[in-house]
Amino acid sequence: MLSQYQRWVDSAIKRYRFGKSPESLYEPIRYLMGLGGKRLRPMLTLLAYSLYRDDVKSIIPYAVAVEGFHNFTLMHDDIMDNAPLRRGKVTVHEKWNVNTAILSGDVMLIKVYDMFLGLEAKTLKEVLTAFNACAAEVCEGQQWDMEFETTERVSEKQYLSMIRQKTATLLGFALELGAILAGAPLHERKALREFGINIGIGFQLRDDYLDAFADPKKFGKQVGGDILANKKTYLLIKALERARGKTLKDLQYWLKAKRFRKKEKVDAVKAIYEELGIPSLVNRKADQYFQKGFGQLALLEEGERQTDKLVNFARRLVERQT
Fold first, then answer.
1. 2-318 in CATH: which number?
2. Long-range CB contacts (within 8 A, 24+) of 207-216
């Protein structure tokens, strides 16, 4: 069933043209959307809907809208991060140029609103209210992420709040959207949203770990990119908290270095992380959020909701290595 859902989503994305002219505006959108990926967010929308109704295929356009918004954020994030790769392929701003990537991202967001216009008036208002709140939080989280780049010290609390906004809120909305479209009770919509938010925080923490320690052949992005950019990830925040003496001095050296060999810096900082026990620390924290998320599913009416598909899909995220 999960593979069927993904085929429906992929097929709908392939059919959707976004626009025709100028080609240079719309081709980058089709390029990015066609790079594939896990389609995590639309899958969550479909799975949440399937808890209540069987006609899952009927909401594919709205699930694709969630994926469209996610890819809009990626297109602009890649510009801000100066990222060379996305899903193992050249990023839009590298393949075309920065100005084209900005405009393509802008029109991509407009097309997301177009996708929602097929909803009935009452449902449309509910969906857009939730979507707009989510979208604003994503932008706020991205701004905090950029501000952290020039902040000397970021606390664990600040970082977790930032990734909640930037990453986790959209997973929460994806699940809430499925529940809204299915006419689910309000308290169950909230439970599904909180499930997604907690899973999303765990997902980002796991992503922080993988950015440094994943197999480059499987990860699809530049391994060590966060280290090279001195990004205030959970790993770096905890390393700065724990490091003392020579270890702290070495870490600060690499954070301040202006000229270096990329591999040398990545290897050196990873060695410091391992010395301080950071990999196990970040994975334990991720697991705490995963478990908190799964606990939210207990709030759904027992015996009424078959959550196996949703749980199994989420567990694949928990166990991801790429």
1. 1.10.600.10
2. 208/233, 208/234, 208/235, 208/282, 209/235, 209/279, 209/282, 209/283, 209/286, 210/320, 210/321, 210/322, 212/266, 212/269, 212/270, 212/273, 213/270, 213/279, 214/321, 214/322, 215/321, 215/322
